[in-house]
Design goal:
Mean pLDDT of chain A: 86
Largest sheet of chain B: none
Radius of gyration of chain B: 17 Å
Helix content of chain A: 40-55%
Shape of chain A: elongated
Structural class of chain B: mainly alpha
Oligomer: heterodimer
Number of helices of chain B: 16
Number of strands of chain B: 0
Shape of chain B: globular
Mean pLDDT of chain B: 84
Structural class of chain A: alpha+beta
Strand content of chain A: 25-35%
Low-confidence stretches of chain B: none
Distance between the termini of chain B: 34 Å
Strand order of the largest sheet of chain A: 20-21-23-24-25-26-27-28
Number of helices of chain A: 25
Strand content of chain B: under 5%
C-alpha cells in the first residue's frame, strides 16, 4: 500500500541530491551517459556500467568515448541509413529506436532518449540507451504490418472500413468514402450508420453486434447518399478483437447497385409481359395462389374475370401483327383504367387477360364489374388509319370458399369464357357448376367429334407375346385422346361420351380403319410383325349388324387380310343379347374375322356362349391375373380358365401381367400368350417399331 | 481567499483508505493489468457492484459506440469498451466522482474530451479505448478537488469563467497543486501506465512541447472539447486550439460531431 506521505512527495516533484541521482542511474539496466563537446566531437564525460556492457567494452572504457565512433542503423532495415550516435543525440529531443554497433561487438537494439542541458559551464547532453526487448521489436513489426495494410487498403478498389471499438470507424478507405458520400468526420464516428436506410440499419447493427461478439456477417444493405441517390451494397465483416483493447471489426463494402438493378430487371421481366408491361401468367399464379392460401372463412368473396378478345386472329391476319400488338396494348390500357384499387390485371397469354378482383361482395357485383370492363373494350380502337371494333368474351369464376384451388378457378373462368364465346361472343358468363357440367360435356363431345373427324384420337399399341418363344403374335390397339386443354381423357370416359352422343359408330369405324391400315403396313415392312394379328376392342353397343359392314369396309380399304383381324368382345357383350349377338358373330365369321373373348373370368362365363361365339382367343381378365401370387385360389382359377379356353380350341392369353411371379404362374397354368406392363407397355407405333428392332424385353 | 492546502493530502489519504463502496472498482483497477484477466472475469468482478455494472452497460450502449440497446451483458460491454475504458470508469467510481455531487459541466467536459480522444487516438496509432480512457480521466483531479472543497472550488471555477484565468493556475494557488497533478498522483498509485500518467501531467504544457502520442491525443481532444464548450474568438487561443487539433490529425469539423456523440459516456446522469 502506498502511503499518503509518499503520494504527497510525488505531487511536489522534489529534486533529489545529485549523488543520490547518480547512484540510482548506475543501477538502471539501460546505459546512461552524459556527453559534452570536446574539440568538435561529442565525448562521454560520465557513463554507467550498463553502457559498457551495451557497447561491448571493458568496465569504464566507455568514458571518454567519441560518439562519432558508435554506429547506429534502423533496427529491421539492414545496413541502410547508417548514422553515428552523435548525430542521433544532437538531432533533437524525443526517442528513437535503433540498432547500436561499436567496434566488432554484435549490434544491440536500443531506444535512445537524449536531452540537451545548458548550465553555467556550457552545453551537455544526457542520454539514456534502453535495451529493446523482443516485445518492443514485435510491436515495431506489428506497426509496420499495420502500415502495409493501411497502404494496401487505402488503394483497394472495394470499400474497406475498420472499427477500433464498437461500430465507430477508425479507418475508412477512399472507395468507402466515395460510396458513402459522407465527410470523414461522419465516417469516423458511429454516425456513418445514419446513411443506411432505416429498414436495413437495424439488420446491419444487429449483424455487426454479432461480429463484435466473435461471429461473421454478410449482409446486403442500402444507403442514401448525400445527393439522395440510393445505392445497394454488400457488407462482409469479420471481428478484429484484441483482448482488452475493445472489440472492433473489419468490413469490405461492395457496390451491388448495378447488379441489384439487373436482377430487379430480370425479376420484373420474369413476372411481367414485355408488350403491355402487365403482370404475366407466372405472377398471376403467384398472387392467385397467395390469395387463395391466405383466405379465411369470413373474408369477402373474390372473383376471377377471364377476358378473351373475339376474333383477334382476324386482326392479326388482316392488319398484321404490329397492329395486333397495338390493339393488345390499348386493351391493357383500358382494362388498367377500369381496375378498382385492389384488383390485379394480368396478361394471361396471347389475347387473353385476367383480372383478379380480391374484394367483391357477391356474384352480381363481379358480373357488373366484368360487364363494365367489357363495355370499356367495346369502343372502337384506332390503329394507324384503321378503326377496329374489338369484342371480348368474359368468363367469371367466384372465389368464395377456403377450399378453392387456384388452377381450378382459372379453369372455371376459362370454361365460362368459352361458354360466352359459344353463346355468341361479346358477353359475360358466370361459371355455374351444374350448368357448366352439362354444357361442358356437350362441348367435350363436340370436340371429340372433331377429333374423330380429324383423326386426332390417337392409337396406342400393346404387344401380345407368345410364352413359348416370346415372339409377338398379336398387337392390341388401344384408344388415346389427349385433349388440348384437359390433357389425356381416360378411354372409359371417351367411350361413355361417344355412347352418350352417338359417336360410337364413327369412333369405332375410325379406330378400326386406322388400325388395319397400320397393321397392313407393318405386315409389309416389319418382319417381326409379318404374321401378327391385330386385336381391336368392340364395345357392347357396337355389337350390331352394321359392325360386319364396318369391318368389311375397313378391310377392303386397307387391304389387310380378314384372317389377321381379331375383334375382342367382352363376356357381357356376348350375354347381353345372345340372339342378335350370335347373328353378328356369324356374319363376322363369314368374313373370316376371328373373335376373342375379352375380360374372361371377370363375370359369369357361359361355356355355351363361349362355344357359340366360336372364340379363337380368350383373354383372361387382368383382375384375376393381378391377384396371382397373393392367393392360391386365383392360381387355380387361372388354370381352370386356361383349361376352358383350350377346351373350345382357343388360344389363351393372360392380360395384365406385371410381375415375374405372375408370369411364372401364368406359364405354369398353361396359358399360350400374355400381355401386360412386364412384357410391354402400350406405346406409339413408332415406339413399337423401335422396340421390335431392339427386341422386346 | 484562504488556501486550504491540506485538501490534497486529505484526498489522497481518503483514497488510500479505500472506502467500502469503491472496493469493487479498485479490484477492477488491479485486475485490468493482469495479463490473464478476461472480459468475463472482469465482468464477474464488476457484477458485484450494481452501480458500476449499470455505468459500464450504459456507456457501451451510448450512441458513441453505435450499439444502442444491443449490449445486454457486462462481459459484452467490457469486450466492446476495451479494458482501458473500463479502467477509467472504475477509476472514476473508485474516486467517488461518478455519483457524488460533481457539477454536470465537469462530466460533460470529460465526456466530450473522451469522445474526441477516442476518435483521435486511432489516427495516431493508439487504441480508441486508450483515447476514451484518458479523455474520461483528464479532469479527475478537478473533480476530486471539487468534491473535497465544494464551495471553494465552485468559487474558483466561477472566477475562471468570469476573468478568463486558467482554472489550473487558480487550483495551484489555492491547493498547492492543480487538479491534473493530483489526478496524476492518484492514477500512479492505482498503477496506471507511466505513459498515461505522463500524458495527463503534460496537458498544460505548451502545444509544441515534445510529448508522447497519447499526450498529443489528449491535447488535441482537450482543444476539441474546449472549442465545443466555449467557442472562442480570441485569435491566439483559437490558434493554439487549432494547432493542437492539427497535431492530432483532426480539424474543427470534429467539434460538432463530438458534441453529438458524447451523450451517454460520462455525461449521462443516473
Amino acid at each position: 500500500m502506498v502511503s499518503a506521505d509518499r503520494g504527497a512527495r510525488a505531487v511536489d516533484h522534489p529534486t533529489p541530491p545529485r549523488h543520490v541521482l547518480a547512484a540510482g542511474l548506475r543501477l538502471t539496466p539501460g546505459g546512461v551517459l552524459v556527453a559534452a563537446e570536446r574539440g568538435g566531437s561529442l565525448v562521454t564525460t560520465w557513463t554507467t556500467p550498463a553502457l559498457d556492457r551495451l557497447l561491448g567494452v571493458e568496465l569504464g572504457e566507455a568514458l571518454g568515448l567519441d560518439l562519432e565512433t558508435v554506429v547506429v542503423h534502423p533496427i529491421d532495415g539492414g545496413a541502410g541509413d547508417v548514422r553515428s550516435l552523435a548525430e542521433v543525440v544532437t538531432a533533437g529531443p524525443g526517442q528513437v529506436d535503433v540498432a547500436l554497433r561499436h567496434g566488432s561487438a554484435p549490434p544491440v537494439a536500443v531506444r535512445v532518449a537524449a536531452t540537451r542541458v545548458e548550465d553555467g559551464t556550457g552545453v551537455a547532453w544526457g542520454v539514456v540507451l534502453g535495451e529493446i526487448d523482443e516485445q518492443v521489436r514485435a510491436d515495431a513489426r506489428l506497426r509496420e504490418s499495420e502500415e502495409r495494410f493501411r497502404t494496401l487498403a487505402a488503394q483497394a478498389p472495394i470499400g474497406i472500413v475498420v472499427s477500433d471499438v464498437g461500430l465507430r470507424l477508425g479507418f475508412v478507405n477512399e472507395r468507402a468514402l466515395h460510396l458513402w458520400d459522407r465527410s470523414l468526420e461522419v465516417m469516423r464516428s458511429s454516425r456513418w450508420l445514419e446513411a443506411i436506410i432505416p429498414d436495413d440499419r437495424e439488420i446491419v447493427v444487429t449483424a455487426l453486434a454479432g461480429v463484435l461478439a466473435g461471429g461473421d456477417a454478410d449482409v446486403p444493405l442500402r444507403i442514401t447518399r448525400e445527393d439522395g441517390a440510393v445505392r445497394s451494397l454488400r457488407m462482409r465483416a469479420a471481428p478484429v478483437t484484441f483482448e482488452g483493447r475493445g472489440a472492433g471489426f473489419i468490413a469490405s463494402l461492395e457496390d451491388t447497385t448495378a447488379q441489384q438493378h439487373h436482377e430487379e430487371q430480370l425479376r420484373h421481366a420474369a413476372l411481367h409481359d414485355p408488350l403491355t408491361g402487365l403482370p404475366n401468367r407466372t405472377m398471376l399464379d403467384q398472387v392467385l395462389g397467395a390469395t387463395v392460401a391466405g383466405r379465411r372463412h369470413d373474408d369477402a368473396a373474390a372473383a376471377l374475370l377471364f377476358f378473351d378478345l373475339d376474333d383477334f386472329k382476324g386482326v392479326n391476319d388482316t392488319y398484321g401483327h404490329t397492329a395486333g400488338d397495338e390493339v393488345l396494348v390499348e386493351v391493357a390500357t383500358r382494362l388498367s383504367r377500369a381496375l378498382r384499387d385492389d384488383d390485379l390485371l394480368a396478361r394471361f397469354g396471347g389475347d387473353e387477360f385476367v383480372v383478379l378482383c380480391r374484394q367483391v361482395p357477391d356474384v352480381d357485383v363481379a358480373r357488373a364489374v366484368a360487364e363494365r370492363m367489357r363495355r370499356q373494350l367495346s369502343a372502337p380502337v384506332v390503329v394507324g388509319d384503321h378503326t377496329l371494333e374489338v369484342g371480348v368474351s368474359v368468363g367469371v369464376a367466384m372465389l368464395d370458399g377456403t377450399e378453392d384451388r387456384p388452377h381450378q378457378l382459372l379453369r372455371d373462368a376459362d370454361a365460362a369464357m368459352y361458354l360466352a364465346k359459344r353463346a355468341g361472343r361479346g358477353r359475360v358468363v358466370v361459371y355455374e357448376e351444374e350448368d357448366h357440367r352439362q354444357t361442358a360435356r356437350g362441348i367435350l363431345a363436340d370436340e371429340l367429334r372433331e377429333a374423330i373427324a380429324e383423326g386426332a384420337v390417337d392409337l396406342a399399341w400393346q404387344p401380345i407375346v407368345r410364352l413359348a418363344d416370346r415372339r409377338v403374335t398379336a398387337v392390341e390397339v388401344l384408344l388415346r385422346w389427349d385433349h388440348p386443354v384437359r390433357g389425356p381423357v381416360p378411354a372409359g370416359e371417351v367411350l361413355g361420351l361417344a355412347e352418350e352422343h352417338d359417336l360410337l359408330g364413327d369412333l369405332g369405324a375410325s379406330v378400326l380403319e386406322r388400325a388395319c391400315e397400320q397393321m397392313a403396313t407393318w405386315h409389309r415392312t416389319v418382319p417381326a410383325l409379318a404374321s401378327a394379328k391385330l386385336c381391336v376392342n368392340v364395345a357392347r353397343q357396337q355389337v350390331q349388324p352394321v359392325l360386319a359392314t364396318t369391318v368389311a369396309v375397313a378391310l377392303a380399304r386397307t387391304g389387310m387380310a380378314s384372317s389377321d383381324l381379331v375383334l375382342e368382345v367382352t363376356e357381357q357383350a356376348l350375354l347381353a343379347d345372345p340372339e342378335s349377338g350370335r347373328a353378328v358373330l356369324a356374319r363376322l365369321d363369314e368374313l373370316g374375322v376371328a373373335i376373342a373373348v375379352d375380360d374372361f373370368g371377370a363375370g359369369v362365363t357361359s361355356i355355351t356362349a363361349l362355344r357359340q361365339a366360336g372364340a379363337a382367343m380368350v383373354k383372361i381378365d387382368q383382375g384375376v391375373i393381378s391377384r396371382l401370387a397373393d392367393d392360391d385360389d386365383d392360381a387355380h382359377l387361372v388354370a381352370i380358365l386356361a383349361d376352358l379356353g383350350r377346351a373350345v380350341g382357343a388360344t389363351v392369353v393372360a392380360e395384365g401381367v406385371e410381375t415375374p411371379a405372375q408370369l411364372a404362374l401364368v406359364v405354369a397354368a398353361g396359358c399360350d400368350a400374355a400381355q401386360g406392363y412386364l412384357l410391354a407397355q402400350p406405346m406409339s407405333a413408332a415406339e413399337l417399331e423401335a422396340d421390335l428392332v431392339g427386341g422386346l424385353s | 481567499m484562504t488556501a486550504p492546502a491540506p485538501v490534497v493530502d486529505d484526498i489522497l489519504r481518503e483514497l488510500d483508505a479505500l472506502p467500502a463502496r469503491s472496493r469493487t472498482a479498485v479490484e477492477v483497477l488491479w485486475l485490468v493489468d493482469d495479463p490473464r484477466a478476461s472480459a468475463q472475469r472482469l465482468a464477474d468482478t464488476i457484477g458485484q457492484d450494481e452501480a458500476l455494472t449499470t455505468r459500464i452497460m450504459r456507456m457501451a450502449n451510448a450512441p458513441y459506440y453505435g450499439l444502442s440497446g444491443r449490449i445486454t451483458s457486462a462481459a459484452f460491454a467490457i469486450t466492446v469498451l476495451g479494458f482501458d475504458t473500463v479502467r477509467a470508469v472504475a477509476a472514476s467510481a473508485a474516486a467517488g466522482v461518478l455519483e457524488d455531487a460533481v457539477p454536470s459541466w465537469m462530466r460533460t467536459e470529460a465526456s466530450l474530451t473522451a469522445a474526441a480522444a477516442g476518435t483521435i487516438a486511432p489516427l495516431l496509432g493508439r487504441s480508441a479505448s486508450e483515447g476514451t480512457s484518458i479523455g474520461l480521466l483528464h479532469n479527475l483531479g478537478s473533480m476530486l478537488l471539487h468534491r473535497a472543497d465544494r464551495a471553494g472550488h465552485a468559487g474558483l471555477a466561477n472566477q475562471a469563467r468570469l476573468t478568463g484565468e486558467d482554472l489550473h493556475d487558480l487550483e495551484r494557488e489555492r491547493y498547492g497543486a492543480p487538479g491534473y497533478v493530483l489526478a496524476g498522483a492518484v492514477l500512479r498509485r492505482w498503477a496506471f501506465p507511466v505513459e498515461f500518467v505522463e500524458a495527463l501531467l503534460a496537458q498544460r504544457d505548451p502545444v509544441d512541447a515534445p510529448r508522447s502520442q497519447l499526450g498529443v491525443v489528449l491535447l488535441a481532444a482537450v482543444a476539441v472539447a474546449e472549442e465545443a464548450l466555449h467557442p472562442t474568438t480570441d485569435p491566439v487561443v483559437r490558434a493554439a486550439r487549432l494547432t493542437a487539433m492539427a497535431r492530432g490529425h483532426v480539424g474543427p469539423d470534429l467539434v460538432e460531431h463530438v458534441s453529438s456523440q458524447a451523450e451517454g459516456l460520462l455525461s449521462a446522469s443516473r
